[in-house]
Amino acid sequence: MKKIAVFTSGGDAPGMNACIRAIVRGAAYHGVEVYGIVRGYNGMIKGDIIPLNSQSVSNIIQRGGTILKSARSKEFMTAEGRKKAYDKLQELGIEGLVAIGGNGTFTGAEIFYNEYKIPTVGAPGTIDNDLYGTDYTIGFDTAVNTALDAVDKIRDTADSHDRVFFIEVMGRDSGYIAIQCAIAGGAESVMIPENLTSVDEIAAILQKGFDKKKSSSIVIVAEGDEEGNAQIVAKNIKDKMDENLDIRVTTLGHIQRGGIPTAYDRILASRLGLGALEGLLRGEKNVMAGVVNNQLIYTPFHDTITKKKPVSEDLIRMVEILSS
């Protein structure tokens, strides 16, 4: 394999640039020509593909976002769109791909291989940390620390005004950010999609705190919790408890996706980027590079896409014990 391309797709995550850098410099080390596809599958369809070299990725390891941009592509979901993408890759003689992204990215790559036999190796880039086949995904650690910084600041004002704050963090299908923020931020409770906690249970936890003369409380809510988002949960709690209870809601939103990646994310992204590249050069295909128990492994896209990665019961239990 003499020519490969790298792209980022789906939601951006801090550390993606470190991953791109590792892929490009690893390719240079192995004597492989490397291209960057701008705006993911959309760029592949449109032929927005640029040559990259070691100089191209200088001074990006510390930057958030992705220099290759990202986009979601409805056109790539069609057979016609994938044919256009294949034709553009053929024009440049690109023989393999490294995809940095999540489930949607890998689903597209698997379909693409089945139709056109262009091999892809993935690197897990998502702040949600919800991909089976790796202990941590690129961007997760930074997102947790960004959210935790906000939780700490909100704790100050909650304490000053004797308020209850419901803080919503990202995680439509995953409670990883929420559970770690709850533990590290000393929250009174956490609501995540993987573990149903009813409004009645939250009300009981808050009342127990008030009975112990707690003057303020923090509840972390993952945006995908079954009881609803933080606004809905807060309203239901107010309806069940004292209407004079001073409740505030903060939705952290996309602030969690941005920012300077932590040292951990830079190192993890570099390791996964190089691992994905070298796996591709060795003949791996339709797999995601991941790190499990500090060992680099490759997991088939099918497993990554279909298998669930549960939140540890120990972490859920820790929130209950440490908040009492």
UniProtKB/TrEMBL annotation:
<dbReference type="InterPro" id="IPR015912">
    <property type="entry name" value="Phosphofructokinase_CS"/>
</dbReference>
<feature type="domain" description="Phosphofructokinase">
    <location>
        <begin position="3"/>
        <end position="278"/>
    </location>
</feature>
<dbReference type="InterPro" id="IPR012828">
    <property type="entry name" value="PFKA_ATP_prok"/>
</dbReference>
<feature type="binding site" description="in other chain">
    <location>
        <position position="212"/>
    </location>
    <ligand>
        <name>ADP</name>
    </ligand>
</feature>
<dbReference type="InterPro" id="IPR000023">
    <property type="entry name" value="Phosphofructokinase_dom"/>
</dbReference>
<feature type="binding site" description="in other chain">
    <location>
        <begin position="254"/>
        <end position="257"/>
    </location>
    <ligand>
        <name>substrate</name>
    </ligand>
</feature>
<protein>
    <recommendedName>
        <fullName>ATP-dependent 6-phosphofructokinase</fullName>
        <ecNumber>2.7.1.11</ecNumber>
    </recommendedName>
</protein>
<keyword id="KW-0067">ATP-binding</keyword>
<feature type="binding site">
    <location>
        <position position="11"/>
    </location>
    <ligand>
        <name>ATP</name>
    </ligand>
</feature>
<feature type="binding site">
    <location>
        <begin position="21"/>
        <end position="25"/>
    </location>
    <ligand>
        <name>ADP</name>
    </ligand>
</feature>
<feature type="binding site" description="in other chain">
    <location>
        <begin position="186"/>
        <end position="188"/>
    </location>
    <ligand>
        <name>ADP</name>
    </ligand>
</feature>
<dbReference type="Pfam" id="PF00365">
    <property type="entry name" value="PFK"/>
</dbReference>
<keyword id="KW-0460">Magnesium</keyword>
<feature type="binding site">
    <location>
        <position position="248"/>
    </location>
    <ligand>
        <name>substrate</name>
    </ligand>
</feature>
<keyword id="KW-0963">Cytoplasm</keyword>
<keyword id="KW-0808">Transferase</keyword>
<feature type="active site" description="Proton acceptor">
    <location>
        <position position="128"/>
    </location>
</feature>
<keyword id="KW-0418">Kinase</keyword>
<comment type="pathway">
    <text>Carbohydrate degradation; glycolysis; D-glyceraldehyde 3-phosphate and glycerone phosphate from D-glucose: step 3/4.</text>
</comment>
<feature type="binding site">
    <location>
        <position position="163"/>
    </location>
    <ligand>
        <name>substrate</name>
    </ligand>
</feature>
<feature type="binding site" description="in other chain">
    <location>
        <begin position="214"/>
        <end position="216"/>
    </location>
    <ligand>
        <name>ADP</name>
    </ligand>
</feature>
<feature type="binding site" description="in other chain">
    <location>
        <position position="223"/>
    </location>
    <ligand>
        <name>substrate</name>
    </ligand>
</feature>
<dbReference type="InterPro" id="IPR035966">
    <property type="entry name" value="PKF_sf"/>
</dbReference>
<comment type="subunit">
    <text>Homotetramer.</text>
</comment>
<feature type="binding site" description="in other chain">
    <location>
        <begin position="170"/>
        <end position="172"/>
    </location>
    <ligand>
        <name>substrate</name>
    </ligand>
</feature>
<feature type="binding site" description="in other chain">
    <location>
        <position position="155"/>
    </location>
    <ligand>
        <name>ADP</name>
    </ligand>
</feature>
<dbReference type="InterPro" id="IPR022953">
    <property type="entry name" value="ATP_PFK"/>
</dbReference>
<feature type="binding site">
    <location>
        <position position="103"/>
    </location>
    <ligand>
        <name>Mg(2+)</name>
    </ligand>
</feature>
<comment type="function">
    <text>Catalyzes the phosphorylation of D-fructose 6-phosphate to fructose 1,6-bisphosphate by ATP, the first committing step of glycolysis.</text>
</comment>
<keyword id="KW-0547">Nucleotide-binding</keyword>
<feature type="binding site">
    <location>
        <begin position="72"/>
        <end position="73"/>
    </location>
    <ligand>
        <name>ATP</name>
    </ligand>
</feature>
<dbReference type="InterPro" id="IPR012003">
    <property type="entry name" value="ATP_PFK_prok-type"/>
</dbReference>
<dbReference type="GO" id="GO:0003872">
    <property type="term" value="F:6-phosphofructokinase activity"/>
</dbReference>
<feature type="binding site">
    <location>
        <begin position="102"/>
        <end position="105"/>
    </location>
    <ligand>
        <name>ATP</name>
    </ligand>
</feature>
<feature type="binding site" description="in other chain">
    <location>
        <begin position="126"/>
        <end position="128"/>
    </location>
    <ligand>
        <name>substrate</name>
    </ligand>
</feature>
<keyword id="KW-0324">Glycolysis</keyword>
<comment type="similarity">
    <text>Belongs to the phosphofructokinase type A (PFKA) family. ATP-dependent PFK group I subfamily. Prokaryotic clade 'B1' sub-subfamily.</text>
</comment>
<keyword id="KW-0479">Metal-binding</keyword>
<keyword id="KW-0021">Allosteric enzyme</keyword>
